[in-house]
Amino acid sequence: MIDTDTLRAKARGALDRCGVKDYDGDALSARSPVTGEDLFGIGGSGDVERAVAQARAAFLQWRATPAPVRGHLVKRLGELIHEHREDLADLVSIEAGKIRSEALGEVQEMIDVCEFALGLSRQLYGRTMPSERPGHRLMETWHPLGVVGVISAFNFPVAVWSWNTAIALTCGDTVVWKPSEQTPLTALACSALLDRAVAETGAPAGLHQLLLGGPEVGERLVDSPDVALISATGSTRMGRAVGPRVAARFGRSILELGGNNAAVVTASADLDLTVNAVVFAAAGTAGQRCTTMRRLIVHEDVADELIDRIAAAYRRLPVGDPFDGKTLVGPLINEAAHGRMRASLSQAAAEGGELLAGGERELVPDAPGAFYVRPALVRMPAQSTIVKEETFAPILYALTYSDLDEAIALHNDVPQGLSSAIFTRDQREAERFLSSDGSDCGIVNVNAGTSGAEIGGAFGGEKETGGGRESGSDAWRSYMRRSTSTVSYSEHLVLAQDVSFL
To answer: Where in the sequence is the active site (predicted)?
Structure first.
């Protein structure tokens, strides 16, 4: 088991190599869920007004920079992230508790979105439409929006920042970032690398600002009238607070909130494939992904076999030190997360649930303050309330169904609408699940789990998930403003709709 002194040395080494300077202080305490202990205090600025003013001043210059030139900045950022891939992965594991492969995967996601944003810098396409008036041209163009405020969560401490920042910078915006107070070290490292990329490419100083602090810092950022767009990732409860406050000042928001993701497993499914996909989606990142699979809706003909196989796989999962190459399940972020998991399991039992595997805390030597748990599998009756709630921990509720209409109704009967999956060899079942009267989620997969989205597709969900979209596809439009323009090259004034005035 890795000890706190080793983690502390790893963290300081990674920060130093990423170019972070003068980070010691008492603004926040850097803590690692790996041992459950504090590493060291760090300084930082929570001066929202100053950060927004500097970002606003930089925007006035950055918005006039040609988009392909802006792309050079995100290209250099991606190169620097690649150079410091191991350091950033170390920090992700230290602060978020992710196993090595997942930490490296998150850093790779940053590199991927920088490559996407580079290509996007030459594809911010407008549109030309035929005008009803002779001698006129009608067109739409897209322009930089302004200062973008990014509020990110602990579970993806760097990827979500990169989704927003790489796209926003390419679109001509500037960024003010308020990371989770549980992951300040990854934020310091990413900010330092971007500062270096800014200096090396000649971009305006101040176009990226980092704010470290508690919830009050995020609240002031949300309320700032000079922040054109707030992109916030977190719980539905957080979104209910953020959305109305931004709307009250006529700002824009992208909300990536809770998920209560399910997979439907039909009688025709490949069970070998299904077991592997379900175990990763439900137990990966210790159940602390917004796309974690939390409900398994299985056809009654294959339910007993599939549930038994998943329970057996759960019992074999290596739980422990995320720096150990054999580990597949790292720690929960803190004691509060463990308390919520225990409370949900108690409620599930009260509603008739049967715990088939896991749920217990794993005591790890030399880490008494850490919270390692064995992922839990609970068989539930169809009519239960706990399955409609998201618990940010590795709990998978298994339910059964008899026909596909029933399965889809069970699937959609939750407030959240982020990610979904169906496992089937029947094309008709797959197409039905993908159709407008199938899954009501923003992400709908066939024979693939609910976790592990690629950056090329827009990421986000419906209902209480917030409706926002980040990363790929046309999500870039959220970071820009649209102008509709009419150009007349006629010698006469021609009014639309055949209006005659003079």
So the answer is: 256
